């Protein structure tokens, strides 16, 4: 399938600071893309370059085959939903949504009809006569979405539009936004620093750091097989263990000098092994583990129950290790007590030392 949006070698600098460094990305029609990364990584700058609020220093922005790199925002086939929604307080909800078509010269009756159809899509058709001040944060967010989609843009850009909502409403709006995107078939580019939000909604996640793209892929792919140390640490929680590969198909872990079969035949010579906390089992007489597990022995440093699961912090030969177990902790799991952990070698993901 041909690309709807093509970002070709885009760079953006502010004085001596490089905000975007050789960004290359292809986005297909109807795809939900999340730009994910910490503050200052370049994700909002990239969104603004796509939108036309900033021009790239080098590189091109191509939408549906047209180079729009130097076109102003209103001449690009896209729309943007901002963090603060930017609704007109003196206009009703219906007038807010109809504003875009009216600016394009559409007759009032037709503009109102389109606005009502957009409000129907976001479940607010009955509230068209209200004013923004009379609506909740979640309702205002839906009005902003209705206004953005009323002219059916080819591409919708969203700059952390859920960040002002409380946690429960935010989680509900994540699902509603994903369902709306699937119904419309419009490509969404969504900026967020919240990895769970990106995992919930996006078809593909673009992980950014220091102005560069570290990895692009589906959420499960990025979680299970991070390409770099930064991705492994930023996406979820991870134990990172230095390793060296031997010639006989094994790897030697720095932690307790443990030896494990290499999880793949093309293992790098050395680097970091990524082991997710949920892949570590607590072994005891009631749960001795099974054959094929690699075993680690250490001391519990902390045990934290978060209701649905327990976070187990252990010291394994001077290395801090994190394990996650379902349910409540056992009565005997107290800081300072010995602990045995086990993991299957197939759960190790290896990152070469230069990644």
UniProtKB/TrEMBL annotation:
Source domain of life: Bacteria
Domain ABC transporter, first and last residues per copy: 5-235
Any single GO BP term: putrescine transport
Record field: catalytic activity: ATP + H2O + polyamine-[polyamine-binding protein]Side 1 = ADP + phosphate + polyamineSide 2 + [polyamine-binding protein]Side 1
GO annotation, cellular component aspect: ATP-binding cassette (ABC) transporter complex
GO MF annotations in UniProt: ABC-type polyamine transporter activity; ATP binding; ATP hydrolysis activity
UniProt keyword annotations, A-Z: ATP-binding, Cell inner membrane, Cell membrane, Membrane, Nucleotide-binding, Translocase, Transport
Pfam families the record matches: ABC_tran, TOBE_2
Keyword Iron included in the entry's annotation: no
Entry EC number(s): 7.6.2.11
SMART domains: AAA
Coiled coil: none
InterPro entries on file: AAA+_ATPase, ABC_SmlMolc_Importer, ABC_transporter-like_ATP-bd, ABC_transporter-like_CS, Mo/tungstate-bd_C_term_dom, P-loop_NTPase, PotA-like, Transp-assoc_OB_typ2
Top EC class, one word: translocase
Subunit: The complex is composed of two ATP-binding proteins (PotA), two transmembrane proteins (PotB and PotC) and a solute-binding protein (PotD).
Similarity comment: Belongs to the ABC transporter superfamily. Spermidine/putrescine importer (TC 3.A.1.11.1) family.
Stated name of the protein: Spermidine/putrescine import ATP-binding protein PotA
Organism listed in the record: Cupriavidus basilensis OR16
Lineage: Bacteria, Pseudomonadati, Pseudomonadota, Betaproteobacteria, Burkholderiales
Gene name of the encoded protein: potA
């Amino acid at each position: 399938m041909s690309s709807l949006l093509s970002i070709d070698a885009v760079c953006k600098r502010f004085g001596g600071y490089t905000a975007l460094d050789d960004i290359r990305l292809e986005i297909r029609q109807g795809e939900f893309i999340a730009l994910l990364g910490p503050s200052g990584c370049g994700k909002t700058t990239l969104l603004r370059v796509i939108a036309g609020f900033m021009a790239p220093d080098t590189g091109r922005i191509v939408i549906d085959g047209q180079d729009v790199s130097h076109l102003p925002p209103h001449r690009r086939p896209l729309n943007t939903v901002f963090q603060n929604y930017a609704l007109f307080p003196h206009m009703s909800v219906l007038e807010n949504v109809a504003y875009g078509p009216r600016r394009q010269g559409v007759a009032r009756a037709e503009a109102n009809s389109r606005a009502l159809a957009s409000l129907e899509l976001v479940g607010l058709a009955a509230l068209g006569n209200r004013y923004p001040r009379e609506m909740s944060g979640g309702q205002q967010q839906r009005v902003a979405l209705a206004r953005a989609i009323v002219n059916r843009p080819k591409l919708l850009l969203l700059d952390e539009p859920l960040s002002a909502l409380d946690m429960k409403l935010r989680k509900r709006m994540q699902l509603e936004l994903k369902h709306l995107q699937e119904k419309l078939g419009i490509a969404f580019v969504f900026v967020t620093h919240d990895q769970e939000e990106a995992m919930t909604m996006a078809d593909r996640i673009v992980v950014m750091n220091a102005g560069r793209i570290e990895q692009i892929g589906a959420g499960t792919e990025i979680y299970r097989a991070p390409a770099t140390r930064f991705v492994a640490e930023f996406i979820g929680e991870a134990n990172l263990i230095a390793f060296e590969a031997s010639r006989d198909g094994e790897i030697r872990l720095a932690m307790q000098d443990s030896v494990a079969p290499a999880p793949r035949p093309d293992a790098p010579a050395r680097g970091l092994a990524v082991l997710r906390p949920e892949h570590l089992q607590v072994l005891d007489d009631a749960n001795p583990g099974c054959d094929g597990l690699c075993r680690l022995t250490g001391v519990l440093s902390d045990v934290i129950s978060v209701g649905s699961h327990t976070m187990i912090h252990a010291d394994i030969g001077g290395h801090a290790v994190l394990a996650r177990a379902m349910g409540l902790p056992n009565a005997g799991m107290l800081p300072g007590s010995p602990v045995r952990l086990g993991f299957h070698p197939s759960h190790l993901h290896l990152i070469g030392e230069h990644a």
